[in-house]
Structure formats: structure tokens, C-alpha cells
Amino acid sequence: MKTSILVEKLGANVVCGKEHLETKEIEYAFASDLMSDVLTINAKNILLITGMANIQTIRTAEMADIHTIVLVRNKKATPEMIELAMQNDMIIAESSNSMFKTSGILYNMGLKPVY
Amino acid sequence: MQLKFHIEGGNFTKAGFASSEVKKYLRKINISNETIKRIVIAMYEAEVNVVAHAYEGEILVNIDSKKVDISVIDKGPGIEDIELAMKEGFSTASQKVREMGFGAGMGLSNIKRNANEFIIKSQPGEGTSLNIIVYLNNVN
Fold first, then answer.
1. Domain boundaries, chain A
2. Could you tell me which chain A residue has the CA closest to the CA of B51?
3. Is residue B140 part of a domain?
4. In what order do the strands lie in the sheet with A112-113?
5. What CATH fold (topology level) applies to the domain A3-113?
6. Are B68 and B43 in contact (CB under 8 A)?
7. pLDDT in tens, B68-115
């Protein structure tokens, strides 16, 4: 599914990577604030839903080949996060919704769980 | 090819820089994305461990046509009971480390899962050394 459709449905504010919205495809989603858990998942084209907004969120996504991150609970990306995300061609979208609501919307749209 | 990095204990801003550099290098040579992911996830877990637990450390990455061999050597408190430290869920991480999203006691077992060969040695009060080897022919 195109990332543009997902972020539009979420009503999320895309703070970086707008140029990739039409080209990046998403098949799976994973919701976690625990980066240790994110590092154990094994799937391609994953969207990460997290309330953890720090530079290690982006580093973790970089290592795990995750190119789209939705920050929930009104968390904001810092300038350092945005800079590193841009270097890695990532999309960051910010949402004021909870992790549960965000996950529910994306699940209903057909994104698959990693397990 | 050898890449060498110095890792600063406690500095979470820089944690992952070395793994990121290795990932960039591996992408330039002919290695599958799946193998690159295994290598950099194992290395990143080890790098975060040095930042989280040690005073400082060094990472040496040797890359040849058959394997990527990563040595992570730190000066730090070391590990009293390696068998216990390898258990998923066991962690001695500080609150600060947990607030960064780590310290869940998953790191060492995740390194082992992604590596083809993994050796861990530790001298309590002195430090810990890891040797992580990933074969490039995708043999698990």
C-alpha cells in the first residue's frame, strides 16, 4: 500500500520524506516503544508505530531497514531525528492519536502484523 | 578491508554511528540486503551495549569475500555471569538506557541469532569482548 494513502487516513503530519510518499510501499506494521523489540523483527516494507521520539528511534529504523515511522501520542521529531531520517530517505509522520487507535486504523486498512 | 571505530560510553547521541558507517560500506559491495541487515543489527546491538554499559570501547570490522568479522572490545564493569546475561529478559541497564528504548535484555541473544559465530568473554571489573562473525554466503 502506498505510504501517502496511509498517512492521509491517519491524518498524520509528515515532517520529512514527503518526496517518498508515492514511491514507498508498506505491507506490514509493528507498534512498539521498545527499540530492542524492533531490532528482532524480520519482515520487509514495515511501518513502525512508536511513541519513542529520540535519535535512536531513527538509528534502529536504519538498521532494521524500516523507512516509514509514525510517531504517536503527539510526540514530535527533533531536528536531529529529521536530519538523520533525511540522510536515510525515511518518512516521519506525527500523529496526535494513541498507539492503539493508529494501529487499529492501519490494521483496518489491511496492513499485516509482523507476527 | 578493515574498519575501526572508537565508541564513547554513555553517549547515546553517537550510538549507532559506527554501525551506520559499516552499513554504508556493505551496501557498496555485493552483499544481499538480508545479510547486511543481520550484520548491522548484530553490530548495532553490540555498539549500544558498549554505550549503555561500558566506559569506552573499540570496534574492529574485518570484511573479506567470505565473512564479516566484528570484534567489540570494551573497558567497563564486565559481566559477572555470562549465561545469565544471555537469557532473554535479563538486564542490568540503567533507567536512562531504558528510556532510550533499550535495556530489555534482548541484545545479546539477538546478536547470537543474527551471527553465524558468536563468542563472548568478560572479565568483571575490566571489560567485555565480543566476536561476531557473519558468513557472506547466507549459510545460517
1. 3-113
2. A56
3. no
4. A13-16, A91-94, A68-71, A46-50, A28-31, A112-113
5. 3.40.1390
6. no
7. 999 999 999 999 999 999 999 999 999 989 988 998 888 999 999 999
Q: Which of B40, B100, B107 sits opposite A54 (nearest CB)?
A: B100
Question: Grid coordinates in use for B28?
Answer: 557498496
Closest Cα of chain A to B85: distance in Å? 15
Whether residue B139 has pLDDT greater than 60: no
Distance, in Å, from the CA atom of A73 to the CA atom of B133, rounded to the nearest integer, reads 40
For residues A75 and A103, give the distance between their C-alpha atoms in angstroms, rounded to a whole number: 16
Domain count, chain B: 1
Chain B residues closer than 8 Å to A38 by CB: 101
Residues 73-112 of A with CB under 8 A from B: 80
Instruction: Confirm whether B36 is domain-assigned.
Output: yes
Q: Could you tell me if B59 and B4 are in contact, meaning their C-beta atoms sit under 8 angstroms apart?
A: yes
Domain that holds residue B20: 2-135
End-to-end Cα separation, chain B, in angstroms: 23
List CB contacts (< 8 A) between B15 and chain A: 56, 59
> Which among B83, B57, B81, B61 is positioned nearest to B70, based on CA atoms?
B61
Chain-chain contact of B104 with A36 (C-beta, under 8 angstroms): yes
Task: Give the torsion sign (CA, A70, A75, A76, A81).
Answer: negative
Instruction: Read off the C-alpha cell for B131.
Output: 566476536
Has residue B64 been placed in a domain?
yes
First CA to last CA across chain A, in angstroms? 19
The pTM (predicted TM-score) of the whole model is 0.94
Residues facing residue A68 across a β-bridge: A47, A91
Give the CATH number for residue B99: 3.30.565.10
- The answer to whether the CB of B42 falls within 8 A of the CB of B111 is yes
